[in-house]
Amino acid sequence: MALKFAEYFLTSFRPTPAKRYRVVIEKGWGAAADFPNGLERDAYDERAVQIVGWDNDKIVASGRLVFPVLGQVLPTEETFGLEIEPRGQVVDLGRTIVLNQYSNISHRVLAGLLAQSWIETRRRGHFNVCATFSEGMTRLCRRIGVHFTSLSPPRRYWREDRIAVRLDVLASAQALTERWAIKASDTEGS
Q1: How far apart (Å, rounded) are the C-alpha atoms in residues 133 and 38?
Q2: CA-CA distances (angstroms) from residue 180 to 61, 68, 86?
Q3: CATH 3.40.630.30 fits 5-187, yes or no
Q4: In sequence order, what are the beta bridge partners of 91?
Q5: CA gyration radius for the chain?
Q6: How far is residue 186's CA from residue 183's CA, in Å, rounded to a whole number?
Q7: Nearest-CA neighbor of 44 among 99, 114, 91, 112?
Q8: The pLDDT value given to residue 44
Q9: Residue 96: Cβ within 10 Å count
């Protein structure tokens, strides 16, 4: 069975602050008092593109792409005090969430979310992606085949130690494609 990303993941300019809030609270990244209106938003949402994963009419995953704007920093640059090269050519992937009941050992929903994020990044003419990874996300991405380079030492952010990373989109796409092709062929004919 091939996963058809376009059927499940859509690009939107409307953020998903209520879903993000729910996940932030569930994961312990913030407290309800930090979000008095029950929404997780910041100034970057105004210029971001949202990738939203659906199960029928239910939002089950989302991620945010912040594209470069001349003279403005990216969220990861602001958080870590970095200037990520090449200036003006890096896209920031962040606020990535998958609802707990859609996260399992195979991490297909996360892989689909990443794939659609990379499709949108390429569609807009970019190749370079940065992100902020927790220790858990670092382990998970290594395990499923996402290639990345650390750009910073760990820093406390959202109540966890996190690092700034540059994603190797081409190597990751190849590794994830091979991983899912193997998994799909293992289940065919069974």
Answers
A1: 24
A2: 19, 31, 31
A3: yes
A4: 129
A5: 16
A6: 5
A7: 91
A8: 95
A9: 20
